Q: What sequence folds into this?
């Protein structure tokens, strides 16, 4: 059991719904998160925080709040006076995740933080420490670890249905056309396609296996002269080796048309999730011998599942399934991939863990 699972945190909200202040009204918040809160079972929107006062007021009113529930970044600490705000959901450019986690911990609020947890191992460690010291929970917003298709795939992998797993292959690529995007500024993003989209491959491979890689190697590539990639990398390919002998080969890019997939190859069969990381319409197929089955899982809002999980854990006083430590581990793996790439692709060793799910809390409830 990890230390974070034993932690007892305050505040524990009653009645049944955990109230959130959502920080940053960008694309993800407006298109996915606010609608997910509207159908939340254990969660509800209590406040919004934005640098754009008009947008903040409009979002508050559109989701049943009042103008008084709209805050600026300068007013963030005033959330400390709100007993109905139990947690903050940080949906800001990556390099701001640490600052707002520390500020939230200081005012006694639990923290749900978007991926990647931070832009460096050092920042991620500081975030885990700040929340632990303040007695609040920190959850990394890894929606794919709350998604029924991914759980069905994990069951197939870990039940032995595919035999012994030998190889995995995962790709997450998309075109990033916008030169002005914060995602292409190193200071705000921390890196290029790896922390933004490649992270899904790292994290999902680890989730399906339950294992931790002990060694990685990687290479980076950016199209010469392409101004978008002056500060951050366009593409990364990398390999991860696991204690059970599994080798995972992965690739991510900001330069290729959208594709998001994961394939698992075992001695008795294979599975594929394709698309694997979309918000909707995931498709999981399992093949053993000549038998190919599409595993049908009722569609669910991934963001509702994720936020409701954190809400229930806060209410129960238990650490979430994907705590800060889970995001920190991915930060260490990504740092090792960059190190390998900068050292000519030589393998870089990571701390070796033999157990399963060493950074995760108790498994989420499944319907
Ligand atoms: P956007 O660029 O659409 O929104 C970011 C928001 O942050 C802005 O709209 C702005 O909100 C606020 N902000 C504050 N300071 C800055 C700044 N210096 N530059 C730019 N924006 C700033 O980003 P996304 O919503 O796509 O991503 C936000 C976070 O969510 C990232 O960490 C990303 O990795 C993660 N993400 C996760 C996804 C998932 O599936 N889990 C999917 C997409 C993103 P305001 O105007 O209100 O101040």
A:
């Amino acid at each position: 059991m990890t230390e974070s699972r034993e932690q007892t945190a305050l505040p524990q909200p009653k009645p049944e719904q955990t109230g959130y202040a959502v920080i940053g009204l960008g694309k993800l918040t407006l298109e996915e998160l606010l609608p997910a809160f509207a159908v939340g079972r254990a969660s509800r929107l209590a406040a919004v925080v934005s640098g754009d006062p008009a947008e903040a007021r409009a979002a508050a009113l559109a989701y049943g709040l009042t103008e008084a529930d709209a805050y600026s970044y300068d007013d963030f600490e005033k959330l400390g006076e709100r007993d109905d705000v139990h947690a903050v959901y940080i949906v800001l450019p990556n390099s701001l995740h640490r600052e707002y986690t520390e500020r939230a911990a200081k005012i006694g609020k639990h923290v749900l933080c978007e991926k990647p947890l931070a832009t460096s191992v050092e920042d991620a460690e500081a975030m885990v420490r700040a929340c632990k010291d303040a007695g609040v929970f920190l959850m990394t917003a890894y929606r794919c670890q709350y998604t029924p298709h991914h759980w069905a795939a994990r069951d197939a992998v870990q039940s032995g249905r595919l035999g012994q797993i030998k190889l995995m292959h995962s790709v997450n690529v998309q075109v990033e056309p916008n030169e002005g995007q914060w995602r292409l500024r190193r200071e705000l993003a921390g890196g290029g396609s790896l922390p933004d989209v490649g992270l899904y491959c790292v994290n999902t491979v680890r989730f399906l296996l339950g294992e931790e890689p002990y060694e990685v190697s990687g290479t980076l590539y950016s199209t010469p002269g392409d101004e978008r990639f002056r500060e951050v990398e366009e593409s990364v390919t990398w390999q991860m080796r696991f204690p059970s002998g599994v080798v995972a080969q992965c690739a991510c890019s900001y330069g290729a048309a959208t594709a998001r997939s994961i394939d698992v190859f075992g001695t008795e069969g294979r599975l594929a999730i394709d698309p694997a990381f979309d918000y909707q319409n995931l498709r999981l197929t399992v093949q053993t011998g000549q038998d190919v089955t599409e595993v049908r899982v009722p569609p669910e809002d991934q963001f509702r599942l994720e936020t409701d999980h954190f809400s229930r854990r806060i209410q129960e006083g238990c650490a979430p399934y994907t705590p800060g430590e889970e995001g920190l581990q991915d930060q260490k793996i990504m740092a090792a991939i960059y190190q390998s790439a900068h050292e000519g692709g030589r393998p870089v060793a990571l701390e070796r863990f033999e157990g399963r799910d060493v950074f995760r809390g108790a498994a989420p409830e499944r319907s």
About this structure: Residues 24-29, 50-52, 55, 91-94, 96, 114-115, 141, 143, 182, 188, 196 surround NDP (CB under 6 Å). Residues 58 and 67 are 8 Å apart (CA to CA). The first helix runs from residue 3 to 6.
